[in-house]
Amino acid sequence: MIETVYALYLAITIALTIWVARTLSRNGIVFLTQCFGQNDTLAQSTNHLLVVGFYLINLGFITLTLSLGSEPATIPEAIRFLSAKVGLAVIVLGAMHFFNMGAIAKFGRKVNDWLNNNPRPATA
User: By residue range, what is the domain housing residue 23?
Assistant: First the structure.
């Protein structure tokens, strides 16, 4: 039974990671293009790098969490096991998304200013 639970965990979390990465990549390119002063090449390159980093961090997290917790012996324990692990993976996916959006917005404004040769004064 434990092999089935682990297989379900991997299938669910990897599928979620792929779906979120594709969704963010497809819809985020508009945001990146705006942040980078309509520079499509820079936006596409940044988008691709973000997707690769997103996959690496999330797949690493997913595989690391395989060893956490005690192995379920019953169906109710298996459901709790899966819900806890999948829930944790979803929270990490969401946290990464908000972190990336904040970092891109901050960095994108700087790049946009650099591209327009209008540097902002340094703030303390």
Answer: 2-115
Q: What pTM was estimated for this model as a whole?
A: 0.72
The 8-class DSSP code of residue 110 comes to H
Whether 122 is covered by a domain: the verdict is no
Number of compact structural domains in the chain: 1
Residue (of 90, 108, 92) closest to 47 by Cα position: 108
> How does DSSP assign 62-98, residue by residue?
HHHGGGSSPPP-SHHHHHHHHHHHHHHHHHHHHHHHH
Q: How many CB atoms lie within 10 A of CB 123?
A: 4
pLDDT tens figures, 33-77 = 887 778 888 889 988 998 998 899 889 989 988 888 788 888 999
In a domain, 120, yes or no: no
